[in-house]
TrEMBL record:
Gene Ontology molecular function: ATP binding; ATP hydrolysis activity
Domain ABC transporter: 10-209
SMART domains found in the cross-reference section: AAA
Protein name per Swiss-Prot or TrEMBL: ABC transporter ATP-binding protein
Length: 214
């Protein structure tokens, strides 16, 4: 991998977050070290998506710090952004954008050769949707493009929010194989309510309430 490390870590240091005076996290401390797949487990509203969004750098911590390797999650830290890629549970893509345009845009931002996504287009059977706008795509098809945009990068941290939601059986099988393969060289953190899917990719469970109480 081009990140050049034979290991990778994500570290939460005294991370606190509240929404409208409701505490979601209070001085959370945890480190994920090394490659593999981890799934955050917790009831609806426990804060799984919030934590993934914070590690992705899209939501601020109220207090505390988040690091990937030695890089701190800060608005202008481009080195941090290179280390992480994130798939939210719903598509945030402009309606007018077409599938291929979106992937080419991500390639251009991440300085990747556009050839890098072809293999995933085949595995996810997206050939016929490259020219389709996100407005016209089904939920599952849009989700597949988002997954491709993350899987094609070399970022060693992959954050996936409910990644299996909306995928058909054939795609799920292809996706499971890709995740297992990528988990040899990436640290994959996901939120996933589906135990069958978690087991199928050998995800290690991390209970959010256990994290909160240290
Ligand atoms: N932008 C926001 N403004 C106010 N409250 C928010 C906001 N985003 C999330 N919350 C609240 O923060 C809490 C954690 O939400 P989050 O979506 O992270 O939970 P989750 O564990 O991912 O839930 P689910 O399993 O339902 O996906 C919830 O109480 C939610 O209502």
């Amino acid at each position: 991998m081009s990140h050049g490390n034979n290991t990778v870590s994500t570290r939460l240091e005294n991370v606190s977050k509240e929404f409208s005076e409701k505490t979601i996290f209070d001085t959370l401390n945890f480190t994920w070290q090394g490659f593999g797949i981890y799934s955050l487990i917790g009831e609806n509203g426990a804060g799984k998506s919030t934590l993934l969004g914070m590690i992705a750098g899209l939501l601020d911590c109220d207090l505390g710090k988040i690091f990937i390797n030695q890089q701190q999650c800060l608005l202008n830290n481009q080195e941090y952004k290179k280390l992480v890629t994130y798939v939210p549970d719903h598509s945030p893509i402009y309606d007018f954008m077409r599938g291929q345009e979106f992937l080419d845009l991500i390639c251009s931002i991440r300085k990747l050769n556009p050839d890098c996504y072809q293999i995933y287009i085949e595995k996810f059977k997206l050939d016929n949707f490259l020219n389709t706008t996100f407005a016209e795509m089904s939920f599952g098809t849009a989700k597949k493009f988002l997954l491709v945009s993350a899987l094609m990068t070399e970022a060693p941290i992959l954050l996936l929010d409910e990644p299996n939601n909306g995928l058909d059986q054939a795609t799920l099988q292809a996706f499971q194989q890709i995740l297992i393969q990528q988990s040899k060289t990436k640290l994959i953190l996901m939120s996933c309510h589906d135990q069958h899917f978690r087991d199928s990719v050998n995800a290690k469970s991390i209970r959010l309430d256990a994290l909160k109480t240290g």
